[in-house]
Write a structure and sequence with these properties.
This is HNH endonuclease. The chain is an alpha+beta fold. The protein folds into 3 domains: 134 residues, no CATH class; 80 residues, no CATH class; 118 residues, no CATH class. The strands form 6 sheets. A 5-stranded antiparallel β-sheet has the order 1-2-5-3-4, with helices on one face. A 3-stranded antiparallel β-sheet has the order 6-7-8. A hairpin with a 6-residue loop joins strand 12 and strand 13. It is elongated, with a radius of gyration of 26 Å. The chain starts with 13 loop residues before the first strand and ends in an 8-residue tail after the last helix.
Length: 393
């Protein structure tokens, strides 16, 4: 089922077919009655514009666009063409105008010579495609991605969607200092890398997870080595007398409350300024990962490379080290390493073996609007240090 960017189903049928060593998109005609009442494929125009835009997100090329109705099959292909040159689709095109171009061209195709007016402009059409990263075996995947996010999909919005695991907690703390010395610098698959005075040390995540489990049972744990220090950082504990202890906040402590308020205000100010820079005064913008447009208040100015490990010049490179990610899941998925962007600007995902995979499949293969030659090095850092999967060195 085809749905729009807000999860609303459209009354329009399309399919992706393998054809001649490539892929074709076939959009069925509109008009007539469908079973159960209503007009068949009544959302033809909206569907065509939406599909063109989603193909544009993937830098597709429409090699041929032609009418493919039963009534026109007798005609030569040259007499059924809607355009006479390939169409290179990018996210910056005016897809409303392109849709009108394709529908307006249909009116005279298949008509008898001398007909007084143009005919149906919502016929069955075929678009022969070149889509980077997709071949004939990938037709089902492309169709699923073009269909969009169904209404019954709820995007994760916060930490509660994920188990409290060492892997998750340490990924979002890259760059933080450890009690007793050392700094978290990366969380590649199955391990956490810590920079110490002795060099870089790799600690298995299983050992940190075991420490977290013990901490959950006892409410405190000794801090005598790197594993213990990582546990303390992961749970946000204080170190008191060699023990990591999580204490409830003292609500009467005005000094603490004042500091917390100032820190939050500073964060909001910095976030607002960075977001304003990235949206360039617009009232809405696209998420760099899912490509869906949102009002700016639902977009987060996310650092591609963690600010805590960025050099001073990198921190000043605001237009390239940061991107806009929506608060409906993409920001969190990127932060936790479920999603990355490869060296071509294509979104990578990693399987979880659970229901989250449905969301991830809808992101996989999209082109990130934040990827440029200047931001590529930051996405590479994220792939090498945060991403849970493989691909795109």
């Amino acid at each position: 089922m085809l749905v729009d960017d807000w999860g609303r189903p459209l009354n329009a049928d399309f399919s992706i077919e393998a054809e001649g060593g490539g892929l074709s998109l076939v959009l069925e005609s509109a008009g007539g009655k469908k079973r159960g009442g209503g007009v068949r494929n009544a959302d033809y125009n909206d569907a065509l514009e939406l599909l063109l835009r989603r193909l544009g997100d993937r830098r597709a090329v429409v090699r041929t666009a032609l009418v493919d109705s039963r009534a026109t099959q007798r005609l030569a292909e040259a007499d059924r063409l809607l355009v006479h040159e390939p169409l290179r689709l990018t996210s910056s095109l005016d897809f409303g105008r392109l849709r009108m171009r394709l529908t307006s061209a249909q009116g005279r195709i298949g008509q008898r010579e001398g007909a007084p007016k143009a005919g149906n402009n919502s016929k069955r059409i075929r678009l022969r495609l070149e889509v980077p990263g997709y071949g004939p075996p990938d037709g089902a995947r492309l169709q699923r991605e073009l269909e969009g996010v169904r209404q019954d999909v709820v995007w994760p919005t916060g930490r509660a969607e994920f188990a409290a695991r060492a892997e998750d907690e340490l990924r979002v703390r890259i760059g933080e200092e450890l009690p007793g010395g050392g700094r978290i610098v990366a969380v590649p698959g199955g391990a956490v890398v810590v920079e110490t005075s002795r060099g870089f040390e790799e600690i298995p995540l299983d050992e940190v997870q075991a420490g977290l489990d013990r901490f959950a049972e006892n409410g405190k744990a000794p801090v005598s080595g790197l594993v213990d220090a990582l546990v303390a950082v992961a749970v946000g504990a204080e170190v008191d007398g060699g023990q990591a202890v999580v204490s409830p906040p003292k609500r009467t402590n005005r000094q603490f409350a004042g500091f917390d308020g100032r820190a939050f205000a500073k964060y909001r100010k910095e976030q607002g300024a960075l977001r304003k820079l990235l949206v360039r005064g617009a009232g809405q913008a696209e998420c760099a990962l899912c490509g869906r447009p949102f009002p700016v208040e639902f977009l987060i100015a996310a650092h591609i490379k963690a600010r805590k490990v960025a050099s001073s010049p990198e921190r000043q490179d605001l237009e390239n080290i940061a991107m806009l990610a929506c608060s409906f899941g993409c920001d969190r998925l990127f932060e936790l390493g479920y999603v990355a962007v490869d060296e071509r600007g294509v979104v990578l995902t990693t399987s979880t073996g659970g229901p989250l995979d449905l969301h991830l499949r809808l992101l996989e293969g999209r082109r990130s609007g934040a990827f440029t030659d200047r931001s590529a090095k930051y996405f590479r850092w994220h792939r090498e240090n945060v991403f849970r999967g493989t691909g795109g060195a």
